[in-house]
Amino acid sequence: MRCSNCDARIPHGATSCPSCGVFALDEPPQPPAPPRRAWWPLALLLVVVIAGGAAFWFLREKPKAPAAKADPVHVVRGRPGGNVAEAEAIRELRHYLTARNIASECVAVMSHGLHAGSYQLTAYDRCKHQNLGPWSVDAKTHEVKMK
Question: Which residues contact 84 (CB under 8 A, 6 or more apart)?
Answer without folding.
Answer: 76, 77
